[in-house]
Design brief:
5-stranded mixed sheet, 4 domains, about 500 residues
Amino acid sequence: MKQELYFDRHSGLQLSALTEDGRLIELGIENEAHREIVGNIYKGRVVNVIESMNAAFVDCGLERNCFLCLSDGDAFVRSEGIVPAKGGKSRGKAAPLKVRPGDELVVQVLKNPRGSKGAKVTTKLSFVGKNLIYLPGTDFLGISHKIGEAELRDNLLFTADGMRAKGDGLILRTVAPYATASRLRAEAEYLRNLYLSVLEKNKTAPVGGVLHREYDLPVRVLRDNFNDDIGRIVVGDRELYDELLALVRLRPDFVRLQIELYAGEYDMFSQYGIARQIRELSGSTVPLPNGGDIVIERTEAMTVVDVNTGHFLGDENLEDTVYATNIAAAREIARQVRLRDVGGIVVVDFIDMQDERHRRAVAQELEQCLSRDRVRCKVLPMNELCLVTFTRKRTTNGVASQLLQPCPHCRMNGYILSNEFIVCLIRAAVLGRIAQGAETVVIELNADVMDFLLSRRMVEKDLRTLKTHPGKKVYLVPHRTYHEEKFNISSYGAGEAFELPAGARELKYN
């Protein structure tokens, strides 16, 4: 299947989209003001030690103190589905780390802060590349469990063992078999140099200082999704385009990639039909191709998915109709959890089926579709009530956290589109009107959204496209009675008469 990657940066967000035959299959959204911190390395100071929990809390300069488990050595290996080499030492079997309040530590973030909880950190550092994970100071050799061929595994482990320094560790990632030995060595050396730079920075850094920052979203996505199926990469931001070109030059395995700078006047994601697919993610109901639907409800403890036949009646008996709907639902559920980056426990309530063969087939279809996900999923058997439970490793706060915000009108029980995403939609609409020949554009919007838009100074950068159209004017009109998601756009051609609404403010972009 033809896959394409799209990257853009605007409205305070970094966005990535992976499509397959034009259909969105993976989405990444990162707020530039609140970037993901998993993988970041900080210089921290122990604040207090909780002996009963075998844990400590560490000040890393973040909003809340970080949680450090003092015996978390094997956590990373287990969570990544890594198999130790035969006879190899398992990570973290040594005695628990001994620390006291006031001790300074170099720690790496394993999990982002969630709710009232601070980030989870570890003192066992990991540097992730495309093919390898480098573990400084940890005598461990491992390989992804997805590399199943015994002879291939042995050859890779032999190569990796010869590349690592005494006392250090290496993990071979799933894509390692596609890299040459020289490329693996070059990557191992690069990752080791990153570690040495961390040690050097630590000598003079203050407590709370960032010693290493994980790559921005587009670079991580390109690193993790690079394969022969990627036919095209399109970038909507010039600065980001230059950054990706520089990366390609440094990475021999990326040389063949064709990266295009989007030159259209319309918003890139709107032009390729991606914006519409992204907006659909804000809803809880997802239609199925056959007329049925699934309803996705997220709670604090888990995500629940309900499958419905909807208007689909089918051409056969009821059992066949239900079976066809459940098969379509299994495929769409796998796509949606990947798109929405759903993590934790997921319970799927399939429509009741009497035929045991149908139950097995639906469960197998769900498991097979989930196996294509880069994030590890574990599926339990379907029970007699046609309920299937599976887990998906939580990697971020989820795409929904960037698309949605608590609704102020229903005591925070519901959700509305986030201010950042509303600004994305406004930007796309304005660029569309200008591309159609408008000389003046008037945007009427919620007053608080307008304040947010201006306070973040997004528009001057986001609408820089207007600089190539001398004489174009854009006005903002605030409304206290408008719902947060509501905005109206009017546009006028050259010489066309119009009257500006009261309170209109001209947008300065020069």
